[in-house]
Amino acid sequence: MRCAETVSMNDTNAAIDMIKQIRKQASHVGDGIQRLACILADGLEARLSGTGSAIYRQLAAKRISATDYLKAYHLGMSITPIMRVAYHFANKNILSIAGNAPKIHIVDFGISFGFQWPSLIQFLAKMKYEPPRIRITGVDLPQPGFHPAERIIETGKRLEDYAREFEVPFEYHGIASQWESICIEDLCINDDEVLIVNSMFNLSQLRSSPSLEKNKSRNELFNLIRAIKPKVFIQGIFNFSFSPFFVPRFRMVLLEYFRFFDMLDTLVPRNSNQRFLIETEFFRPPIINQIACEGSDWVVTPETYKKCHTRNLEIGFEQLPVDPSIVKECSEILRNDYDERYFIEEDCNWFLQGWKGSIIYAVSLWKPQVE
C-alpha cells in the first residue's frame, strides 16, 4: 500500500526501491499472497513506467489454447463450485422458463469456449419427450490477429459435435464483434422460438462509470436486450467494484483478488501447472488493467450486485424471483462435493456464492418491463 501511494505521487526513485523490496519477498511459486504480490508489483511497475496499456494489450492479445483452457477449467470445477453451480442454476432456469416449447434460442454474450452448454444439452437429451430444437447465438469480442472469429467458430463446432452425440437438434451462429455495435438483425430473432439472453460473468468488459460517454456501451447493450424482448435475461457478475481513484482502487484489487489466490492456495498444491495457468492467464491481465491503466484503456470494470440491481431497474428491467427448488439443487451440489468454506445465499432475488464469508459471484434473472 505504501508503494501504491508512492507511485500515485510519482516519486519514481522511492517507488522503484519499494518494488525491489516487494520482489524479494514475492514468489510465483510461494503462498497465495506471495504469488499475488508478484502480479501487483508488475502492475505498479507498469503504471510507474507508463507502459500499462501496452502490456495489457499484449496480454489480451495472447491466445490461450482450448486444451490449456480446458485444463484450467477442469481444475476450477474440481475445487470450486462457483462455475458449476452458476451454470446449473442458469441452465435449470432456462429449462423451467422454456417449458415444453419446441424451439429455444439462446443469445450468449461472452460465450468464450462455451463450457456452460454441454450440461444443458445433457439435460435436454434426458427429457422424457422429444428434446426441443436449440439454437445458440454465441457472441464474443474479436480475437486479435488475422482470425478474429476463430475461437467462436471452433466453439460452435465443438457444441455441434456434442449435440449430435446426444441426439439433440442443434444450430449455432457465432458473432465476433464489439457487443455494443450489434443490432437486432444480427441476432436473427424468430417469433416461434423461446428467446433467452445469457451473460455469465462477462459484462465487466463493458465500461460503466458516472460519465455518460463511458456508460454508453453498457447502456447500448442493455437497450438491445430490452428491444429483442427475451423471456428471460440471465445475468451473472463478479461482485466487485473499483474506485476511479488509484490508491483506493489498488486497495480493493488487493483485497478482492486475494480471495481467489487464498482459495487456490488452500485447495491446490503450489506446484500445480493448472494453478499457475489460472493465476497468470486469467487473473494477471485484469489485475494489470485495473492497476496500470486509466481512461479509455481501463476496460475491466465490474459492479457489485447491489449497484447492478439498481441500474437494471433504472434502465427498464423487471427482476424475476429465484426458484427455491433450483437453489436447493445447487446447495446439494455444494454440500456433497465441495469445501465447507464455500457458501450459497440469497438477497433481493440474487443467487449469491462466496468463500469464507465474502460474496464473490452473483446471478439473477430479469425481463424487460412491460411499457
UniProtKB/TrEMBL annotation:
Residues 292-367 are annotated as: SAW. InterPro entries: TF_GRAS. Residues 73-138 are annotated as: VHIID. Residues 154-186 are annotated as: Leucine repeat II (LRII). Keywords: Transcription, Transcription regulation. The keyword Magnesium does not apply. A motif (VHIID) lies at residues 104-108. The keyword ATP-binding does not apply. This is Uncharacterized protein. It comes from Rhynchospora pubera.
